[in-house]
Specification:
globular, two-stranded antiparallel sheet, alpha/beta
Length: 275
């Protein structure tokens, strides 16, 4: 199978052949185009790789397997297969949004020599509340109700979920999110939603072998601040930065803030390696 076509891979070249590489992973219900406001800030100093997980965006829908993509490891497989298809090596940073942060962490654990670092925008290792020790933001019955709504009224769910994610009833980001949700096959979207909202990677966090930058949205309806603090404590060699924004998609609503935070982190870690 042609992985480049399957995952709708798109590469933005760098000026130098040995330039560092950024690989971007999108969130649930989204696609690679959600990063289009960020990538110009890193051209042409970085080689940039964007792709769609199978079942999202313009990926090859015929490659969708509900068993494989019903769990996060299926999306980890996609990410690693894209990296292998491009023969990526050297200074490689994975930039993930939302559930892609968990996917990136699991990929780094499986292939510890592949990634140099992770940049995690809006991460949550578990969206479920788990007694008093961990409050992921949602009760299980709430998430099961969300999945039930997706099964019976997908378009209605998409119209409700987009403004929750963007923190705006009407905005360009809300429209883009709603369009992306509505253009995704409902079965594939529900399968990804189950893998996203019912997964729990907390036991794996201490095994993450690479440094990371955690970018948390100050007012995020999906990820409470306590989750960012938990992740920061659990991930060795992590840095936590709070973005003073509302919503869950700062790379779309406030790309200049995300790009600036990425630049500061990348410059600091690269200089640390060189010194």
């Amino acid at each position: 199978m042609n992985i480049i076509q399957r995952n709708n891979v798109h590469c933005l070249p760098a000026a130098a052949h040995d330039a560092p590489t950024l690989v971007y992973g999108h969130g649930f219900g989204c696609n690679k185009d959600m990063w289009s406001r960020v990538t110009p800030a890193f051209t042409p100093a970085y080689r940039q790789v964007l792709f769609d997980y199978v079942g999202s965006g313009e990926s090859d829908a015929s490659a969708f397997d509900p068993v494989r993509y019903g769990r996060l490891q299926g999306y980890v497989d996609d990410l690693l297969e894209v990296c292998d298809a491009l023969a990526l090596s050297g200074d490689l940073t994975f930039v993930g949004h939302s559930i892609s942060c968990s996917i990136g962490i699991l990929a780094a654990i499986r292939r510890p020599q592949l990634f140099s670092r992770l940049i995690l925008l809006g991460p949550s290792p578990c969206f479920l509340n788990d007694n008093a020790d961990y409050r992921g933001g949602f009760e299980r019955q709430d998430l099961e109700g969300l999945l039930e709504l997706m099964a019976h009224n997908y378009m209605g769910w998409a119209k409700q979920f987009a403004p929750l994610v963007s923190a705006a009833d009407e905005s360009a980001v809300t429209t883009q999110l709603s369009d992306s949700f509505c253009s995704t096959d409902p079965l594939m979207a529900r399968t990804f939603a189950q893998a996203t909202f019912l997964s729990d990677i907390r036991p794996a966090l201490p095994s993450c072998p690479v440094p990371s930058l955690i970018l948390h949205h100050q007012r995020d309806a999906l990820v409470p601040g306590a989750v960012a603090d938990y992740l920061h404590r659990a991930l060795a060699d992590s840095r936590l930065e709070i973005l003073e924004v509302s919503g869950h998609c700062a790379h779309m609503s406030h790309p200049e803030l995300v790009s600036a935070a990425m630049h500061r982190y990348l410059q600091g870690t690269i200089n640390r390696v060189l010194s």
